[in-house]
Specification:
homodimer, about 350 residues, Phosphoribosyl-aminoimidazole Synthetase, Chain A, domain 2, 2 domains, globular
């Protein structure tokens, strides 16, 4: 990323970022200090901020356009899982001196591609320099019918637990990016790596879950960890059947019969699929939604009252009905990840 | 900041940050993935995100509560200068491994103090780790009557240029924090340093400027630089009388007859006062507003059409009416700061 030094931030904003704001009147072409945003009639604004950090959320040498798209998509994924339709975002971009103008151009091009794909607009933000790694904070705005967002806490005993797409690809992709797996074909490897680098937020499906899902969230910390979050707030436990967890063909090949890689699937993060609960009576509507959206949705278990005197928790059962141990319990930035919302 | 390692982020959020969200129903006690926010009837949401970085925006050893309060206040200042009343904020907190739990407790206490002072609530955010310095991105939400915010681009020829409070204290305070000034008394030094460390966003005054100010923004890059921003978007020039720029007693003492320190006042940043324009007919209302709010407001010059064929610009005149040279032209993170919005 070495190169000639950067123009000042005002020129960079005018050249690369202002064009990303031109469809949104309340962004004022990034020529003012604030942006103005209103929800549509009958809707309310849903907001989410996530930060991604070089060396933590992406490898130091990652392509700038992929960094930009992932930073945006992890926020869109949160909105989608709550039933909100994404509309706009603010970008705080913190750059080390090693970043040059080509990097910024590629970063902005990544945002432009995703803006077109997801129908969102840049409406403001800030730039700063740092002695540390590239750091990107995005605050995303969506909207949902008033009072209708899908919460973590609404699950009921007996609800079915569903998950969209496939689980574990990103964790396997991350592991692959660090060391190749013996005997994994190039096509499978490329698929898994892309699932890690470029999540596919379920922005069309998510809002259609309003009225179906009793609770939900996106899978970012890992299937088990995120299900545990849902359980904690819903004050319920969950029982998951390992054989029902949806795996891609590439993931099946990568896992083979290696129990460590299966644990990676259960405990790894970065899937950005939607994990949700719905009453058994909604099974047909979920199936229809899967068909109409083209996104597979798998039933993987059910919710139940927590055992008396015990904290809500997650049990994963193997094919013989035995509880599996869960060596990886999800991603946390500090300390050891324990139960907790 | 060395100490025992941090608990995981979920525990930290539950212990230190969730209590900051409890007055705001749409924050869901930080137990969900998103927050929900609506403007009052007839109002619209005004949003702003600013990032502060250790070693850039505050010195490495700065007290955690001061870092927190400044990070929040620079955003509140932007909202206030646009006429918006602050309501809530999202916090992205990126921490190096050297930060311990005492630091986090002090940081959260700083936020709590400012929440009480400014009537805002934490409604969400994210935590991450970094190999770099403490980095804080805050996205602040305010509200203003629909279509009424004070823009950069509304100034008219003949408008008076006003500024609140005093200018240059923060720049002098920053310089003081790096090297003491000969012959500056301790009380003046303490005043200037606090003006740098802890801005006073004009959150009560700002919304009252709606209907009075034709254009405005907060002084963060420096009086001249920010006035130039206003000029660029308004497509006008400005003429400022140096003798009318309001200086604190401490700043007068610190400047003495040192022209370099005067340049620091004109070019330095971090004042977080409101710079605005208003028609001459509004002079009495501005005076009345200053009296009722207890915030001094000084007329420092006027707006004029840019000379034919020339870019909009800022001229500062000395006591004899001569144009002064402006050696410091404001703060920019990258490259050389030139004209530009």
């Amino acid at each position: 990323m070495a190169g000639k030094s950067l123009p000042n931030e005002f020129d960079l904003i005018a050249r690369y970022f202002a064009p990303l704001s031109h469809r949104f009147p309340g962004a004022y072409g990034l020529l003012d200090d604030v942006a103005v945003i209103s929800a549509s009639s009958g809707a309310e604004l849903v907001v989410k901020s996530d930060v991604v950090v070089g060396g933590i959320d992406f490898p130091p040498g990652e392509a700038a356009d992929l960094i930009a798209r992932k930073a945006l998509r992890v926020n869109l994924s949160d909105l989608a899982a709550k039933g909100a339709t994404p509309r706009a975002y603010l970008l705080d971009l913190v750059l080390p001196g090693s970043v040059d103008e080509d990097w910024i151009a590629a970063f902005a091009a990544g945002l432009a591609a995703d803006q077109a794909q997801y129908g969102v607009d840049l409406i403001g933000g800030d730039m700063s320099s740092t002695s540390g790694p590239v750091t990107i904070a995005i605050c995303a705005f969506g909207e949902a019918p008033r009072g209708a967002i899908i919460r973590r806490g609404g699950a009921r005993p007996g609800d079915t637990v569903f998950v969209t797409g496939t689980i574990g690809d990103a964790a396997l992709g991350l592991a692959l990016s660090r060391s190749s797996f013996r005997s994994l074909d190039a096509r499978s490897a490329a698929f898994l790596l892309e699932r890690y680098q470029l999540p596919q937020p379920r922005v069309t499906l998510g809002p259609q879950l309003i009225g179906i899902a009793t609770a939900g969230l996106d899978v970012s910390d890992g299937l088990i960890a995120d299900l545990r979050h849902l359980c904690c707030v819903s004050r319920l436990s969950a029982v998951i059947e390992a054989r029902l967890i949806p795996l891609s063909r590439a993931a099946r090949v990568a896992i083979g019969d290696d129990p460590e890689k299966l644990a990676m699937v259960l405990g790894g993060g970065d899937d950005y699929e939607i994990l949700f609960t719905a009453s058994a009576a909604q099974a047909a509507r979920v199936e229809e939604l899967s068909r109409s959206s083209g996104v597979s949705i798998a039933a993987i278990g059910h919710m139940s009252a927590a055992a008396k005197g015990e904290e809500p928790g997650v049990v994963v059962r193997d094919e013989l009905g035995r509880s599996m141990s869960l060596p990886h319990e999800g991603w946390a930035h500090f300390g050891t990840h324990r139960d907790g919302p």
